[in-house]
Design brief:
Length: 220
């Protein structure tokens, strides 16, 4: 582990000892697109984690597909939505191609797996993950999944800790973006400096394609 990450882990350990905190199970969401779904709609939550956004989407009656590869987060997610028949769970990561990849865990994951599951990433260079500790997870091709649904997707939320760039470029390359009405993405170039140029290039591409209204990279 690099010196910078070692110092970050020690700092995180100190903060955790002083203020253990809890995993986020509830969050106020006021974005209209998240709240105005209907039973005939399809929504996809990539990086569902503990199900905070998944449950918001599902309350509308929409068919919600929730993807979460971290086993501890997935267990909490499954418990949270167990009474929601319109939620379809997938213990998988999403990317631009299928396979099996390493999911790197948060530096302080061992202290509280549920709380720190949110930082898990397929990218070992992410600042808050431990490149020496991870688990192998199944990865699916998100474009392929969307195309096989056979119906338009009303809303797609993507929070996949750095892998969003590959997914979005694939959606643009293959035209899968045309099958989705609205996309909300949390970007992570701030946590993975090597992706800063990639981030700028993606934003430029989206603007040049006239898709800045459809693909929201700044919702959070």
């Amino acid at each position: 582990m690099s010196l910078k990450k070692t110092l970050k882990r020690w700092g995180g350990e100190l903060v955790y000892r002083l203020k253990p905190g809890k995993a986020q199970h509830v969050r106020e969401v006021t974005i209209p697109e998240f709240l105005n779904l209907g039973p005939d709609d399809i929504a996809i939550d990539c990086g569902a984690n503990l199900g905070v956004i998944t449950t918001v989407l599902a309350r509308s009656g929409a068919q919600v597909h929730a993807f979460e590869p971290n086993p501890d987060a997935f267990a909490s997610l499954r418990s949270k939505v167990k009474d929601m028949a319109n939620v379809h769970l997938h213990q998988q990561a999403v990317l631009d191609k299928p396979g099996t990849l390493r999911l790197y865990l948060h530096l302080n994951y061992a202290r509280n797996p549920e709380r720190f599951s949110q930082g898990s990433s397929l990218m070992s260079e992410k600042r808050n993950v431990d490149e020496a500790h991870g688990i192998d997870v199944e990865v699916i091709d998100l474009c392929d999944f969307i195309e096989k649904l056979g119906r338009p997707v009303k809303l797609l939320k993507i929070d996949i800790e750095g892998a969003e760039y590959a997914v979005l470029h694939a959606m643009l390359d293959r035209g899968t973006i045309d099958l989705v009405e609205k996309v909300f993405v949390e970007t992570h170039a701030h946590a993975i400096p090597s992706l800063q140029q990639t981030d700028a290039a993606l934003r430029q591409r989206i603007a040049e394609c006239g898709l800045s209204e459809k693909i929201d990279l700044n919702w959070i």
